[in-house]
Write a structure and sequence with these properties.
Order of helices and strands: HH
Strand content: under 5%
Helix content: 10-25%
Distance between the termini: 38 Å
Largest sheet: none
Number of helices: 2
Length: 76
């Protein structure tokens, strides 16, 4: 099955780190399968993007908003 190519978080506009979206297939594992995403975070997704765009780890509540994302590779 083919994954939707949406790699942008619908809440913040940043990279959502969706491995299936990046690969174009649902046959690859993704960070979200091991994460507990709150109902509140899911409820904030705009209706037109439900089941069409994934949240990023920060918006999903997996990362504390005050902590840097360990996956960010920004040298600054």
């Amino acid at each position: 099955m083919k994954a939707l190519p949406n790699t942008i978080c619908p809440l913040c506009g940043g990279a959502n780190r969706c491995a299936p979206a990046a690969a174009g297939t649902l046959d690859v594992p993704c960070w979200c399968t091991q994460a507990r995403i709150s109902r509140e975070a899911l409820a904030r997704i705009p209706a037109d993007l439900v089941d069409k765009a994934c949240l990023c780890p920060r918006c999903a509540g997996v990362l504390d908003a005050r902590e840097p994302d360990p996956l960010d590779r920004n040298p600054c």
